[in-house]
Design a protein that fits this description.
The protein is α/β, with parallel strands linked by helices. It has a single domain, classed as Rossmann fold, CATH 3.40.50.1820. The chain is built from 12 helices and 8 strands. Helix 1 links the parallel strand 3 and strand 4.
Amino acid sequence: MELTERFDWQGRRIAWGRAGSGPAVVFCHGTPFSSLVWRPFAEALSRDFTVHLWDMPGYGRSSKHAGHPVGFGVQAEAFAALLAHWGLDRPHVIAHDFGGAVSLRAHLHGGVPYASLMLVDVVAIPPSGSPFFTYVGENPDLLGRLPAYVHEAILRAYIQGASHRGLRDADLDQLVRPWTGDDGQPAFYRQIAGYDERFLEENERELGRIDIPVRILWGAQDTWLSSDIGHRLRKLIPGADLALIDGAGHLMQYDAPIPLMDQIRTWLPPRS
């Protein structure tokens, strides 16, 4: 499932793709990833659902213009505009990492209705971010000028650390590739520099207003975001349930794809 379509929004070019038929399911990726992490799941679900993938502006195959902010607020606005462009009314949304905060903000502050929401190891409430994330946020211009081979070595080690089981070389290569080259390297550091935890604080204050079905999944071995955050989310979101997936780190899509797919299948409504 390739992102063959483009949506122009406020000077940005958003890459997206759609496949299948049936109820709408939309996947939101996180950072420093792209829709690539969801592609196998979207392809499998396309037999029973109309699945939508997209790369946030500044990520993957979408535009990476140096002058465009890429924080939570902008991404939530972009998501709302894209859903309107698709003409979707109350899709099922499945979000990972940064995509959790984006989808929550679009719903809580943008008034975008969903049929249901699945949150997978999400950035959603404070605190968040590793020491490396903090350091990058304080030195984005310096790190953006690193020699390419040093940058790639750092990037590979960083992304590899999101997996509990360890990523295959081919998978790691795919995840690293968008952040290399003249456009990708500075874009990687910009998206971290644009991180603003105040949006997470706003989300946290509003979570009690959610009145749609919510399921939270968390890798039991997630070293990027502790499962304690998942437990806090479950308490803050009315009616939400939580499942911990053993053997999975932050990249559950690669560490535990079968348990993750089982959770998604049992969560989404059966096709009539």
